[in-house]
Amino acid sequence: MGLQSGGPRVSIAIMSHSKRAREAAALAGRLDGARVVTDPSPPERQFPLRTAILAWGAAEPGATHHLVVQDDVELSPEFLRRVETGVRLFPDAALTFYANWSSMNGAAIRLAGAAGATWVQEMGTEYFPTLALVLPTKYVGDFVEFATTLSCWWRDDDDVMREFLESRGIEAYVSVPSLVEHCGLESIAGNGDHGERRAAWFTAEPAYDPSHEALAHSIDFCPWLNKCRALVLARTVHNGRQLWIQRPWTDMAAAHGLDARDLRASFDRLTAPSPRLQKTADDLGELFVFSVWLTSYLMGTAVRSGVPLRTLPGFGAPPAAPAIERAGLHTLAVGGCAWMPLPPSLLATYSAETAELTETGFTTGLTG
Question: Is the pTM of this model over 0.85?
Answer without folding.
Answer: yes
